[in-house]
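Input structure tokens:
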């Protein structure tokens, strides 16, 4: 919830780190639209927002992990590794 509180107060508009965000438009826990608004308003050297469809979790909130979203874990792990290994793609 601290991250949500920071986002609601307006995260720093510029961060020095690269930013990778996964989200589901069907998320019933948070507003994907609000998360995308914060993402759009954050400046970073490299940014990528990736929509995940059918994560497996009934709430579409947990996007990877053996218990609720096992089918997406390898895909997301590969995407994270690629993002880290290949800056500015």
């Amino acid at each position: 919830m601290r991250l949500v509180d920071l986002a609601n107060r307006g995260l720093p508009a510029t961060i020095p780190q690269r930013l990778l965000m996964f989200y589901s438009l069907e998320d019933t826990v948070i507003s994907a639209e609000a998360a995308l608004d914060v993402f759009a308003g954050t400046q970073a050297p490299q940014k990528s927002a990736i929509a995940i469809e059918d994560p497996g979790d009934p709430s579409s909130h947990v996007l990877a992990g053996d218990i609720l979203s096992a089918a997406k874990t390898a895909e997301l792990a590969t995407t994270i590794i690629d993002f880290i290994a290949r800056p500015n793609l």
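Residues 34 and 87 are 26 Å apart (CA to CA). Helices lie at 2-9, 32-41, 70-85.
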